Amino acid sequence: MFKTIKRLKYALAPDLSRADLITLLKSLNPKNSRKERLSALKKIMEWIRLPTKTSDTSPLAPHLQARNIRLKFFLQLLERNPEEANFLATNLKELMGRGSAVKLYCLMGISENNGFFSELSDRVIQYFIPHVYAEKDSVEVFRLIFTDEEDSEWIETCYETILPPFFELLKTHSISTEGIVQDQAEALIILGSQLAALGISRDIRSRISENNIIESHFLRLNMAITRGATNKEILQEVSQCRLKLHEVKKNIETTGVSVALIYKLEKMNALLDRIEMIIYLRETEDDKTKMMIVSQFISHLIRDELRAKTVKDFLNENLHMLTRKVVERAGEKGDHYIAGTPEQRKELFNAAAWAGVLTAFTAITKAWIGHVGFPLFFEGLFFFINYAIGFLLMQKWHLALSSKQPAFMASALSRKFEVFKQTKELSDVTSEVRKVSYSQLIASVGNLLWVIPLTIALDWLWFWGTGSHVVDQAYAHQIIEKHNPLTSLTIPFAILTGILLFLSSAIAGWVENWIAFRNIPLMIHESSFFNTFFGKKRLKEISDSFASTMGGIAGNVSIAFLLATPIIVGKIFGIPLDIRHVTLATGTMTLALNTIGWDLSHWPEMVSMFSSMLLIGICNFGVSFYLALRMAAMARNVEAKYLKVIFRYAFKKKV
User: Fold this and answer.
1) How far apart are alpha carbons 247 and 244 in whole angstroms?
2) Does 584 score more than 80 pLDDT?
């Protein structure tokens, strides 16, 4: 669609449609400034891109046919105007001089930054601020002329139409290509030295089997290039380097990963690709094959450069592996929530019931904090402490809170989706979907079956001890009204809470991955102080579970903070902002109804409470499950269409 819009834009551009090619060619006069000449070259290329009437019988796409027709006309115009042709030739000669193509070979489309965040900031800045082109730089000329991905397609597809007349033009005007051929050797030296520096860095070296730095194949490749080894020898070292990068990626599967490491791996792969392409350029002697290789090289340069400007592609490439590891870490926790056997279902129900008991205390404390009217800072702090204590105790006692399950279970479920993508076999994954759904139902019933009666019991104990309920009549009516799904923002708040629940699971996975990546469990295990303090046996247990435990703590503390923050931020800025967590909201509404009374005269309040419970639960579970599932699908390269197929058949009646 965007390509069609671009073509329409070119077609409607009056300055291009009426462009006088002779005037543009005259602007290439060496006496003119470089800026004027570059502008003329850019407009000539834009003129070639313009749509034109083409033959319907041609096998080529219309936009490629149009470019070929305009190129043919342009070449004919050069034949009829030798002076203007000489101007073009002079500019080409300047661009093909010795040393002019080194940066083109080794920097075009390859990041010059050393880190992920510096590269990201550069791309964001270039997106908003126009790039300033350097003087006498062939890379900048290349960037100025080739600005469309269709340029790459055109050169790669129609090289037999484009390159022969171009080489003939060089031959006619005695323009030597020897300089840019010699530049290939210098470019290889630069590429080899960059690769060697990255390859012997600590985070790469520590993940491959080579113990001695001098044995590094990245270093050997650089040495082979420097001493002028044969193309075959260089390509052999390139193959060895690729094997080592594969070893690093395989190592990542069992340990953690960081965006810095992924960025480094992506850059090293790009450097190896570029070295290979230059070797193939040097190795080819047959003219026809050489033209094909040259066209592929140029098209790769265009694609690499265009991709090097996009922020979205950069984030996808560099965050994919990190996202996958976060998903896997979260999925390991999700396995504990999926009950497949009667024994597992019984255990899950008991864990959910005790979580409901603990939530009842948390809900009562929350209602008391909200009713007292503390200063905003302390109100938020007490909310946070209350939630954090409840969630951390659930982690310590291995309890199951239904609202926290979906994000973790979605990550665990995604492994089955990856298998389905490869085998297209539905039985295993649909069975897993049913298990997840049933497990969620068990946990929800277990939570609510205890949180409601226990909250009522605790409220009556408070009443018998103090003579009043935890919340008074006015505050009770206010609670019911605040949770009414028809007259309040309960549904948007519940959706927000679902997003926060998903974020907490992602934070838990990220922290666990970070700890594993930094090898902190091994540091703890090898510490002489900790060995003396805890003993070897106890310390081994601690180090083995350290990453998982800390990830869980991070997830629980983060969700406590995320749930406590919105209401305080809303009060500070005077905007309606709150959270609706199904079990906490159920406990709070139960307190309110216990104060008002459970007789049938208050049936509107009871209907409001139970409908609110249902809608909040659906929003909490649905949103967090959906977001986690989509992130897991993206991390495992599972397309959305597969998810639709799976869920369409998962709940169909078995035949």
Assistant:
1) 5
2) yes
What radius of gyration do the chain's Cα atoms show?
Answer: 33
For residue 237, the number of C-alpha atoms closer than 13 Å in the C-beta half-sphere is 23
- What the block records as the tokens of 517 is 């990546």
Joined tokens for residue 429 = 């994954």
User: What are the backbone angles phi and psi of residue 485, rounded to the nearest 5°?
Assistant: -70, -20
pLDDT digits (tens, 9 = 90+) for 616-641: 988 988 888 888 777 777 776 677 66
The answer to whether the predicted template modeling score (pTM) of the entire model surpasses 0.85 is no
CA–CA dist 219, 494 (Å, integer): 56
| Range scoring the smallest mean pLDDT among 34-43, 223-232, 416-425 | 416-425
Average pLDDT of 504-515? Answer: 83
97 compared with 417, residue with greater pLDDT: 97
Q: How many CA atoms lie less than 13 Å away from 235 in the CB half-sphere?
A: 11
Using the 8-state DSSP alphabet, how is residue 638 labeled? -
C-alpha count within 13 angstroms, C-beta hemisphere, residue 67: 21
Q: Report the alpha-carbon angle 419-424-427, nearest 5.
A: 80
Closest CA to 13 of 41, 49, 39: 49
Residue 8 burial (10 A CB sphere; 0-12, 13-18, 19+): exposed
Classify the C-alpha dihedral 443-363-500-491 as positive or negative.
positive
Q: Which long-range contacts (CB under 8 A, 24 or more apart) does 169-176 make?
A: 169/75, 169/78, 169/85, 169/88, 169/89, 169/92, 170/92, 170/96, 172/89, 173/85, 173/86, 173/89, 173/92, 173/93, 175/89, 175/92, 175/93, 175/96, 176/96
